[in-house]
């Protein structure tokens, strides 16, 4: 499971292998409600949150892709959709505008 936070927005984001999806929840919510943001992520290995541009990035080991979406789960797109080999880790440096 990959877990990341947007502290300013008081949100947690995580990828769940068993449900093949990425979820979010409010950190300060007294009721444990989580929202499925993105589905059809076959083997989500890693996630990273860009809190400046409100974007979540993830790698999918099954489809060998790297994707991104806005933090509300919309505007989903592939960044790399072929020949990634073994995509595992991902990190973002929003202040410099780089994804590693």
Automatic annotation (TrEMBL):
Instruction: State the organism named in the record.
Output: Saguinus oedipus
This chain belongs to which protein, by name? Answer: Uncharacterized protein
Gene3D superfamilies per UniProt: TolB, C-terminal domain
- The stretches annotated as LDL-receptor class B repeats are 10-53, 54-96
Q: Which PANTHER family match?
A: EGF-LIKE DOMAIN-CONTAINING PROTEIN (PTHR46513:SF13), VITELLOGENIN RECEPTOR-LIKE PROTEIN-RELATED-RELATED (PTHR46513)
A Pfam family of this chain? Ldl_recept_b
Entries under PROSITE patterns matching the protein:
LDLRB
Q: Which SMART domains match?
A: LY
